[in-house]
């Protein structure tokens, strides 16, 4: 049961403190003929649980929306869902008591939480650090003799990664993303304000940057953390923007292609991080760029042999560019699509953290369903936790987060969209496969997706964006039919 608190922003947060924090029950396969429904609503439900039964026949009214599930029609396989172990997240979590720190990580990664299975790790600093830095800021150190992890890794990232691994019942796929190379490798000699690696792929700067990845992977490996993958650069198009405020490094798709085939791919393979050990992921920028980057890089066999998939962010996602995902998949079906960053920025507003706001819940639920229905195999949120201001952030780029920490009272607040994320991450375990779903007598603002889990159970996720409830009739062509009802502004997961 959520300990609800209303801050006047349209919905409520769930408060966690030393005396109480709501847990979620582990998900189990239901018995024959039984459907378990979990619902989160604007009116206050948080994973409210109920049971339904299959019926031999279901009579539908003209106002009922019919949903057909066809587990025989299969699409993409799920990699996972997760968030980012940023410096700021770790710094905020560390302000809590040891017991409360474990509760935060457990809320994300344990079977009593939302069971995240992905984790993104900034390679060095990002804007969500207290200062700009990399792992080797010694000018001209092409041998990387001075490469070293920092206090941010040792105190704010690695302890919580290990805690998550300890608390998770499943493997957590970890992937790293650099925001910038060391400034001395760059054309502008700065960590921010855009800029590119000096020269062209194949030269000592590009080779050293490839070796920088190896040093990072080795350093984490020595601390018993094995990475599943890397993206080559966070938002590489920022390199063209000389006014870009925080850590950045530029690549065009052509530069990234040549860097992969001439430097990064061979150097990783020689160091023991070949394609069988590490997923190299291209792009990691906005959704409108996905198909162009895939076409440039994956059409070249010498580069494509080292690549596993493409990553994208949500900040420029619109209904008009969702076809980018379809085009990339249709042209290169053997390479996965991964949503690698999202957060509510509250552009134009001075206050960046809105406790209990439903708007962010709506954005998240809609975006995740839309991406999943267009071949996306995984979805990664941004910071795991931030403070009441939405930081710290060394350039003041404050944003919202699913968990907001109040360090002065040793408590934290689970935003409504924390539970939105859980309706996907807790039910769509890795290796779940999207199945065929059709709507009949459909209503605008009712969004659905369906999956077959690895345990052979079926999951249906339904989101009602409307201010009115909707009656549902669900027909699984293999199992039978059942009737249900979805409240206004409500997200449901059926299993």
TrEMBL record:
Catalytic activities: a beta-D-glucosylceramide + H2O = an N-acyl-sphingoid base + D-glucose; a beta-D-glucosyl-(1<->1')-N-acylsphing-4-enine + H2O = an N-acylsphing-4-enine + D-glucose; an N-acyl-1-beta-D-glucosyl-15-methylhexadecasphing-4-enine + H2O = an N-acyl-15-methylhexadecasphing-4-enine + D-glucose
Tell me where in this chain the Glycosyl hydrolase family 30 beta sandwich domain is found. Answer: 431-494
What GO molecular function terms would the record report? glucosylceramidase activity; hexosyltransferase activity; signaling receptor binding
Example GO biological process:
lysosome organization
To which pathway does this protein belong?
A: Lipid metabolism; sphingolipid metabolism; Sphingolipid metabolism
Which InterPro entries does the entry mention? Answer: GH, GH30_C, Glyco_hydro_30, Glyco_hydro_30_TIM-barrel
Enzyme Commission number(s) from the entry: 3.2.1.45
Protein name, entry field: Glucosylceramidase
Q: Which organism is it from?
A: Medioppia subpectinata
High-level lineage: Eukaryota, Metazoa, Ecdysozoa, Arthropoda, Chelicerata
